[in-house]
Amino acid sequence: MPKTAINPTREQNYPLWYQEVIKAADMAESSSVRGCMVIKPWGYAIWENIRKALDKEFKRTGHKNAYFPLFIPKSYLEKEAEHVEGFAKECAVVTHSRLEQVEGQEGLVPAGKLTQELVVRPTSETIIGESFSKWVNSYKDLPLLINQWANVVRWELRPRLFLRTAEFLWQEGHTVHSTADEAVDETLMILDIYADFCKDLLAMPVLKGKKTESEKFPGAVDTYCVEAMMQDKKALQAGTSHFLGQNFAKSSEIKFQNKEGEMEYAWTTSWGVSTRLIGGLIMAHSDDDGLILPPRVAPAQIVLLPIYKNPDDAKKILSYLENLKSELENITYHGENLVVVLDDSEATSSARSWDWIKKGVPVRVEVGMRDLEKDSLFVGRRDKPHKDKESISRDNFVSEIVATLDDIYQNIYSKAKSFLDENIVNIDEKEKFYDIFKSKGKQAFVLSHWCGCPECEKAIKEDLKATIRCVPFSSQEEEGKCIYCGKSSKMRVVFAKSY
Amino acid sequence: MPKTAINPTREQNYPLWYQEVIKAADMAESSSVRGCMVIKPWGYAIWENIRKALDKEFKRTGHKNAYFPLFIPKSYLEKEAEHVEGFAKECAVVTHSRLEQVEGQEGLVPAGKLTQELVVRPTSETIIGESFSKWVNSYKDLPLLINQWANVVRWELRPRLFLRTAEFLWQEGHTVHSTADEAVDETLMILDIYADFCKDLLAMPVLKGKKTESEKFPGAVDTYCVEAMMQDKKALQAGTSHFLGQNFAKSSEIKFQNKEGEMEYAWTTSWGVSTRLIGGLIMAHSDDDGLILPPRVAPAQIVLLPIYKNPDDAKKILSYLENLKSELENITYHGENLVVVLDDSEATSSARSWDWIKKGVPVRVEVGMRDLEKDSLFVGRRDKPHKDKESISRDNFVSEIVATLDDIYQNIYSKAKSFLDENIVNIDEKEKFYDIFKSKGKQAFVLSHWCGCPECEKAIKEDLKATIRCVPFSSQEEEGKCIYCGKSSKMRVVFAKSY
Fold first, then answer.
1. Residues on chain A touching B346 (C-beta within 8 angstroms)
2. Following DSSP, what letter does each residue of A260-282 receive, concatenated?
3. Cβ separation A39–B66 shorter than 8 A
């Protein structure tokens, strides 16, 4: 019998371990539709928690939700040159409006050819721009702060559950401002919301920074991002926030009359996070026994597991746990009621316990007759080894549960933070730099000087598959030499391999 | 100057009045994409309230949310004969995976032809069935109770905002059971949830009943529905719940091992409501001054309108209202905190007040210096004439607000209920029956006998555009004669024109 619940382990085969964690936690599965996934209830409930928390922040900062068409006329996509260049290669094209039986042919064939092809939105700047051009007339209409929760489609050659799927769920914010400064402020405020969210809800520390020209969003002036480190020391872009300048305002004719009565092009932003956050969450914290969930995103914080041998005991224990469940569910944790599962399924108590370990539930509570008689609970925590369980009096458990969950959060976060800190290194020698990205297991976030020239960036990408994840906000001005060409540089950037 | 805020009035031109209400309340607009609408923040916020309330009910009754692919391979749709017949005529067909520049041609052209065409889901029985066939193996896996919040696409020849749009938002429940009885129970339980929701949240009374063969969902054994009456006395199908028998289980191979160890086909259901509920909500209650919203679905229950002439007064009044706003927002109404808007926009106080009347906000509170000095508020209610405003002491207003909102709800509901009751008529003479549906303004829900024969149903539809909305649960067995052919009949059914 293997010693870990997940096989292979992270050490043995990280990509396969990732898939097995998802399977063991019953979060998602591939569908038979090219690159599309099915998000199963446990995975979707995590997305619901992500959505709820972010939605609250967006609303708190004055944004309103709306909904725009799934389809984008081909001509709209063509309006912004860089944008269409970026998305035309991977979009789903709708060409017909029905299926018909045709004599002599088996099955149904497409019919009702559309006069203009429609593209399933890969992102909505162009279709939302069309609406905004009508909504914005005067400076009084600004700022316009809109968010949309939606599905988008971008074909992926090598799909991976949550990380890269043809269809994914996301939110896309789209805002319009009367000045460039205000639009940049918005872009950066949203980046802070993303960073705080990653830290507070996902227990995932991130680096904030700016993308290079070659890595930015097609059509943006500047793309800002939050980058997280996975346990294989690869980077995951967790969210992006784009200052679009007047590019989309010009292609979509978003103009407003300023206070002086003159017409001006507006300044726009867009920003988004997606279901790939769940992929990041998995890879940031999970271990060889499965998923580890920070309490605030966990679909359930606590699972109650009755252990009994006969119907009489069962009755007593279940009634005891029902009572405990009600009490716990009335406790609020960071503004939300605790969610508690009582698992009385037919499986053996060991199998049930392992199920919930693999699903990453923060706290497991076992109660048998001996516990009941002592009015105490046998408690396991997902941030500790699975055998490391403690007997706690019922009263203490209840009165300390909020502190316990906070402690679990803190442990998960601290572990990820230490891992990130330990694996960010300053490198000034090209040989060492190449060695790090070429040697298996040596990976890191490498802070090196870069001259700013796209050719050096490209050469490194081709040689090592490492890219500039961002120019981090934390970087200080500092004299140095480009890690590739040796020319003078003023600042370090973060190189890493990435998802 | 016209006497009503909405022109034309309901009396003058009902369909145009409907469009103008939506425009005046800033709820939605047509997009440039064939048949697709843009749901603006005020309309979307109503959908969010609908979603939240229903989601809670689905979860309370054991359902879990999940998410399935947007695309359905053509071959899946073809598996169930009636089903594909019903949807092939109006589906968006994806045939290519990218757009390319081709020499000599202007713009981009579709490229990367798919080996099998994909259809944008018009409903998800077939693609969800594919997953369910893998998830269900044993009676221990049942019941499987899943819901999905998603967008779907069905081309519409004559789109109308909210009522009939090519793309719409909805929820679709899909469940699997080990017996037919249990599946039927599920179908009917959901119908009750829909009916209660329509009553309690939308203040919209509905008739519950069963569809005839010709009106049921393509592939269903039985379709149950809730039907509401609009102010033009037409019917709106507000929600449907389908008992699918073993039809989809057979076409998708959803089988389970029963307790005796034998393999059996499972029994499935599906059920849904969509953004068309918002169309129903508008047409059920709104008047010639615009939208009227029952408090529980209103994006805001109360709007505060400061009235002042100079900056000094403004400061005092705004501070007074900020304080009132905070106090009100801490009050819960049916489990949710009250939402209060403070509108200090530049428009005149009359224009602002009219804005919120047209948006249907249940309670308007105006405060000028004289009110402030008396510590009283000038309060208007959307269920009463707009001039019918009352001065109420601040303390009384706050302490009575929950009762006031319940009273508003009750008034809106009672009005709709009386209207429905007054306009359901028993008709036993063919001439009268024809007269009702042929005369302008005579419309009704007509309870008449029907022999059960599809030909009579079809003839009436062709002659009068009236259809059998349902065989109502409330119908008693009763001897009678078919309104069309005169043959004997056991029960009355509801005929009406419909949206």
1. 140
2. TS-EEE-EEEEEEEETHHHHHHH
3. yes
Dihedral sign from CA coordinates of A308, A314, A320, A324 = positive
Q: Do A169 and B48 touch (CB under 8 A)?
A: no
Nearest CA in chain A to B155: A97
Alpha helices in A423-469 (DSSP H): 430-438, 454-464
Q: Does residue A351 belong to the interface with chain B, where contact is any CB pair within 8 Å? A: no
pLDDT tens sequence across B213-230: 999 999 999 999 999 999
Chain B interface test: which of A99, A114, A252 (most B C-beta within 10 Å): A99
List, for residues A80-107, the tens digit of each pLDDT value. 888 888 899 999 999 999 999 888 888 8
Quote the distance between the C-alpha of residue A256 and its chain's center. Answer: 35
**What are the distances in angstroms from CA B489 to CA B129, B210, B428, B475, B477?**
38, 17, 12, 13, 9
pTM above 0.90, yes or no: yes
Cβ–Cβ below 8 Å for A97 and B78: no
- Are the Cβ atoms of B108 and A88 closer than 8 angstroms? yes
Q: Over the Cα atoms of chain B, what is R_g? A: 26
State the Cα–Cα distance between residues A17 and A168, nearest whole angstrom: 22
Q: Does A2 score more than 70 pLDDT? A: no
- Which residues is B30 bridged to in the sheet? B37
| Rounded alpha-carbon distances, angstroms, from residue B169 to A139, A151, A165, A191, B121 | 32, 12, 22, 29, 12
Task: Please compute the mean of the pLDDT values over residues A366-380 and round it to a whole number.
Answer: 97
Side chain identity, residue B362: P
Other CB atoms within a 10 A radius of the CB of residue B62 amount to 10
CA distance A129 to A76: 9
| A69–B33 C-beta distance less than 8 A | yes
Structure token digits, residue B249: 């289980």
Average pLDDT estimate for B358-373 = 97
- Inter-chain Cβ pairs, chain A and chain B, closer than 8 A: 192
Of A101, A120, A118, A117, which Cα lies nearest the Cα of A109? A101
Distance CA A112, CA A108 (A): 13
Q: Tell if the CB–CB gap between A93 and B92 is shorter than 8 Å.
A: no
Tell me how far apart the alpha carbons of residues A158 and A166 are, in angstroms, rounded to a whole number.
Answer: 9
What CA–CA distances, in Å, run from B359 to B24, B169, B207, B302, B412? 7, 22, 28, 11, 16
User: What letter would DSSP give residue B139?
Assistant: G
Is the predicted ipTM greater than 0.90, yes or no? Answer: yes
Residues in A touching B146 (Cβ below 8 Å): 41
**What are residue B333's DSSP bridge partners?**
B336
A173: part of which helix (H) or strand (E)? Answer: strand A167-177
Residues 96-125 in A contacting B (C-alpha not used; CB under 8 Å): 96-100, 107-108, 110, 114, 117-120
Question: How close B87 comes to chain A (CA, Å)?
Answer: 8
pLDDT tens for each residue of B13-37: 999 999 999 999 999 999 999 899 9
Report the gap between the CA of B461 and the closest CA in chain A (Å).
25
Q: Distance of CA B438 to CAs A419, B16, B358, B434, Å?
A: 77, 21, 33, 6
- Residues near A462 by beta carbon (within 8 Å), at least 6 away in sequence: none
| Cα–Cα distance list, A248 to A244, A271, B95, B328 (Å) | 7, 14, 28, 41
Residue of B nearest to A299 (CA): B64
Rounded to a whole number of angstroms, the distance from the CA of B410 to the nearest CA of chain A is 29
Place of tokens 């007040």: B353
Selection from A385, A389, A386, A388 nearest residue A376 by Cα: A389
Closest by Cα among A334, A337, A404 to A364 = A404
Asked if the Cβ–Cβ distance from B93 to A107 is below 8 Å, we say: no
